[in-house]
Structure formats: structure tokens, C-alpha cells
Amino acid sequence: MHVAVAGGRSGTIGASIVSALLAHNHTPIILSRQTSTNPSGSTSISSSPSGVSTRYVDYDSHDSLVHALHDTTAVISALLIPGPEFVPYQLNLLRAAEEVGCARFAPSEFALPFAAHQAVDIDHAKVAVWDAVKAANIDAALFPCGMFMNYLGIGAPRVAEALAGFREGPLMFHLGDPEGAPWVEVPLGRDGEVPSLTMTDIRDVGEFVVAALEMEEPWGGRELGMVGETLKITEVVGLCERYLGRKVEVRVVEMVSLEERLRRLDPGDVLAKMDCQYTMACGNGDSVVEPVLNALCPEVRPLGVKGFLEKFWM
Ligand SMILES: NC(=O)c1ccc[n+]([C@@H]2O[C@H](COP(=O)([O-])OP(=O)(O)OC[C@H]3O[C@@H](n4cnc5c(N)ncnc54)[C@H](OP(=O)(O)O)[C@@H]3O)[C@@H](O)[C@H]2O)c1
Q: Rounded to the nearest whole angstrom, what is the distance from the C-alpha of residue 108 to the centroid of ligand 1?
């Protein structure tokens, strides 16, 4: 398969999909934004033995995208654009993929299940993208994976390996705070219950996407969820204590307190708002992904939380 991966050069998820494609003897073709030294239409070849091509594109130009996709069979978007271009750039990719006759298209998801997007402002754009993708003439799927398990690697002794290219700061799990003891914010559901949470290692996301690309049966506009492991947050805390060898403080937060925190935030502080809304979505149980792809592709054996902590904290 010749698979175009938008955001596969420097992107966390994109790079994991490119690595998995190479590991399974497929041909990834990276799409990357044009730069002054690499204008739209130019190509660079990686100097590593893999020799992967990066094609530089203008995501605003249909012709540029059609040219870049001319010999590809599928397009996976792993873009993350913190601005309004997130929707039109992916729709331009979709139109170009349709024009060149690509068989499959996946928009950039790789987080909460689709139903949770309304609860997180920054994810509203994903709803707009999917509305167009599901109406298009191409076999498409959504790939939710829950929270990246790699958040549990922040501060680990083998941090670089644990993060697998992930560059964000902590969310809910504050295990590597150099100033103090590790702690976890546990949002309580409105029923007073501790919620469950799905976590998947970034590398397994790549493996699952490639397994889905190798599937003969149509994706059919389904939500093809992938799951590393789903546990109650307090179970994750218990495992963290075991593998960090330290007490992990649990800071329970009720939904009303999170609502109050959200109200007090500067409306322009997009990242703090996103963190608060993700924590609330988790409290509402919206961070649990159905393991649809696990059942369809049992050959993928994802890392669980225990395996992850053992590997990177011991
Ligand atoms: N589940 C989780 O815990 C979690 C955490 C973080 C992210 N995510 C999701 O995972 C997906 C991918 O995120 P990621 O963290 O892998 O992203 P990332 O590492 O930030 O990479 C995104 C890529 O998008 C491209 N890009 C950035 N700004 C752009 C712009 N203005 N125009 C065009 N391209 C641009 C860049 O590629 P070039 O520079 O090569 O063009 C960049 O490498 C997103 O849907 C995100 O919501 C999930």
C-alpha cells in the first residue's frame, strides 16, 4: 500500500503511523507543509535506510494536494492545527483523495470517542470534518484511542522512550513533578463514581491504523475504536504506586468544581480550557473507547498500563 500520512514528518501520531507502515512493508508518503526551502510540489527523501519520501504541499491548493496524492491508495490525516485551518485543510485533502481515486480516508481523530467531541471546544472542528467525510464518496473511519498512555511516561527514568515523541505537558496524571510528590486528579462522575478511562500507547495507535488499512472489509464510516487498556482511574493510580515505588496522591475533584474552574478560566486560554474539558469528559465516562478494532484485528497486541509502567518506570 502507498499511504499518504499528513503530519507524518514531525507529528507524534503521524510519525507512529509512518513507522508502523514501514514495519509492515508498506510505503508511507509523508505530506508536510511547504516551507521557503521546500516549496509545494517538492519532495525530500529521508537519509535513513527507509528512504521515506516527504512531499511538501500547500493545503490550501487542490492542485498541490492532487499532485501529492496521485499514486496513493489511502490518506490518513494526523494533522493537529490549533487554528481554523484544521477543517478546510482536511476537507481539501479529502477532495483531492476523492479526485485521485484513493480508496480510504481517515480524518485526524486519535482521542476521545466521537460522541464526546461536543463537550470539548477544540474538538468541535472534528465534528465538522466528519460531517463532510461521511458524506463523501470514499471508505472512511474514525479512529478514537482514548488518552495517550504516554502521559504516564512524563518524568519516567526512560522518559524519551516512554514519550515516543509526545511533547505535551501532564494532564490529570502528574507523575513527574520535579518539585513534589506525584499526584493524580481524579474527576468524580455526577453519580459519585470514579470513572474508567481508555489509554493507548502512541506506537500501538500506529499498529492499529496499519491493521485497519490491511483489513479487506470496508471501514464503512464506522468508529473503529482501539484500546490499549480501559481501567478505573484509581486502578491506574494503584499501578502507578506499584511501579513508581512511591505514594501517589489522589486529588478528587467533583464536576461542580470543574465547572467552576472552567468559568474562571481566561476565555483565551485555549489549552487550559481543553485540559479542563477533557477532565470533565473523563468524569462523565466519555473517555471510554469501544475496542472495535481490537476485535477486528486481534493480531495487534497493545501494551496495557501495567506493561507500560513496568517498561519505562522500572
Ligand atoms: N489522545 C490523546 O491523548 C491526544 C493527545 C494529543 C493529540 N491528540 C490528537 O492526535 C491527533 C494528532 O496530534 P499530534 O499530537 O500527533 O500532533 P502534532 O504532533 O502536533 O503534529 C501535527 C502535525 O500537523 C502539522 N501541522 C501543524 N500545524 C499546521 C498548520 N498550520 N498547517 C498544516 N499542518 C500543520 C505538522 O506537520 P508538518 O510540520 O510536517 O506540516 C505537525 O507535525 C490530533 O487529532 C489530536 O487531537 C490526542
A: 8
